[in-house]
Amino acid sequence: MPGPVPNREADLARPRERKGSDIQPVTKGVMRDVEIPDVDPDWHPIAQRLWDSLKTSGQSDFYQNSDWAFAFSLCEDLSHYKNAGKRSGQMLQTIYSAFERLLVSEGDRRRVRIELHEPEPDVQSAAVLAIADYKKDLGLAE
Questions:
Q1: CA distances (Å), 22 to each of 14, 16, 19, 27, in order?
Q2: What is the CA radius of gyration of the chain?
Q3: Per the confidence metrics, is the pTM higher than 0.70?
Q4: Which of 11, 35, 79, 110 satisfies CB 3.0 to 4.6 Å to 44 for a cystine?
Q5: Which of 105, 103, 96 is nearest to 75 (CA)?
Q6: Mean pLDDT computed over 134-139
Q7: pLDDT tens digit string along 91-107?
Q8: Could you write out the three-class secondary structure of the chain?
């Protein structure tokens, strides 16, 4: 999606939807089990590092096998480009542009309204803790 990077949802004063505009329905499907291919040991170190970072980044929660196959192909192309004696700026730009489809950067994710947040800490409410302490005092809990 071209254009400026939209603000994060939390930064908006009001929802993105406007009165009178149609809200596009979301078509939903079922996520399948995913098998992530192993990195090719002959790849250029930059391609290997990018591949490894894709596996641990939050956007990969949404990747399916076709996304991993596409990412593998792009890393293969990037490795070939980096190992080639003659390089083309246009080829590098084409490879990097293709990574936008995998939502690799935060700007790419925000353009399609995917925001990654730090997980909420597992904190029990004060009431639950107080009840547990009370049971412990009564000898009802371990």
A1: 17, 12, 8, 15
A2: 23
A3: no
A4: 79
A5: 96
A6: 80
A7: 989 998 988 888 888 77
A8: CCCCCCCCHHHCCCCCCCCCCCCCCCCCCCCCCCCCCCCCCCCCHHHHHHHHHHHHCHHHHHCCHHHHHHHHHHHHHHHHHHHCCCCCHHHHHHHHHHHHHHCCCHHHHHHCCCCCCCCCCCCCCHHHHHHHHHHHHHCCCC
